[in-house]
Amino acid sequence: MNDVIIAMSIETNDVLSGAVLDPKTMDCVYRCPDTHYEQLDEGCSSFVHEALRFCHQRGITPDCLGICTKGEAKDGTITLQPGADPCPVKKILESQFAIPVAILNRFQAFSFGAFCLLNKTVADSLGVINLSDGVGCGVIKNGQLIQEYDKDSGMGGLQIVRRLSDGNQMTIAQIAGVESVRARSRYQGCSIGKLFEDGVNGKDDKNSAFIRDIAHSVALLAGNTAKKYGIFDFYVNVYDDCDITSADKQGFVEIVRTEIHSTSELPINLCLFAPESGEEDVKIFGVARIARAEYIDGGYHYDG
Question: Which terminus of the chain is less hemmed in, N or C, by CB atoms within 10 Å?
Fold first, then answer.
């Protein structure tokens, strides 16, 4: 093996997941440990140092680096918190390690990973809604990832909507984010899995209203994204890190479908995305594919 891809997922200053991947098979050659650093650029550099040390020991030459991040990724910078100064991670790492760097928002990385795992082609268009720590949608149009973070269309999960159960106005991320789900389950004195079981299957009126609130916000997210980009096929990932059964995840998708029909006249199709690998691995897979494609198709040449 002469070349590999280094891929990582970062949140604040934590490297949540990182791997060295074989570009031909996308199999993991080496898994790096999760780590925490004081500064974002320090964390990225330290992670890459560790991966490069592994490669050097085995005579492997990395040809590119992919990063997916919780924050907003634009023009090679990462902004982790609203109002914070953007960190020029791409410039720092390319200057230091002389390999091309691709940076994606986590919803973009997850959506492209799902797109590839579903064996879609360059002629396909798809939207992928990911419910996890946050809520957002990534869009692939004619095989090309749309690298935007658009709160106005709801792609970042930040659009303000009206909650059905009490009429309060909140963002989609506040309604459907995992912190909201955890708060509700603690209030009910049950697990998140039990909350979904009772809410999806109509065993508890309050939990059913809560589940419908989430489903309604997801339906609006899908409808706005479909309207803006002219795509009508969506997959949704439902809280991978929670103890929700496959049947209840599918039941939740059915509720979202009902909400879509009541909120949009567009012919939107929605399916459950149930990967065998976890959320972090799907993001790593997606950003690695983008990094590899940019390296090959972009004819990258480092001049530092």
Answer: C
Element (H, E) at 92: helix 89-97
Check if the beta carbon of residue 161 is closer than 8 Å to that of residue 148.
Answer: no
- The amino acid at residue 78 is I
| Phi, psi (deg, nearest 5) at residue 297 | -70, -30
User: Whole domain around residue 28: which residue ranges?
Assistant: 3-108+279-297
pLDDT, tens digit (0-9, with 9 covering 90-100), for 154-183: 788 889 999 999 999 999 999 999 999 999
Mind listing the pLDDT tens digit for each residue in 233-256?
A: 999 999 988 899 999 999 999 999
Is 283 found in the same domain as 268?
A: no
Q: Quote the mean pLDDT of the chain.
A: 89
- Give the C-alpha separation, 27 to 42, whole Å: 27
Any idea what the CATH number is for the domain that residue 89 is in?
3.30.420.40
Could you report the per-residue pLDDT of 254-270, keeping only the tens digit for each? 999 999 999 988 999 99
Strand spans (E) along the chain: 3-11, 14-21, 28-32, 35-36, 61-69, 72-74, 77-79, 101-105, 126-131, 135-141, 144-145, 160-162, 169-171, 233-238, 269-272
Nearest to 78 by CA among 92, 97, 62, 99: 92
The answer on 11 and 75 residing in a single domain is: yes
Q: Please indicate, yes or no, whether residues 36 and 131 belong to a single structural domain of this protein.
A: no
Per the DSSP assignment, residues forming a β-bridge with 11 are 14
Q: Which of 211, 176, 216, 217 is nearest to 197 (CA)?
A: 211
* pLDDT (mean) for 67-88: 85
Task: Clarify whether residues 173 and 149 are in a common domain.
Answer: yes
| 87 within some domain | yes
Q: How many CB atoms lie within 10 A of CB 92?
A: 18
Residue 128 lies in a domain: yes
- Token look-up 């004819």 returns 299
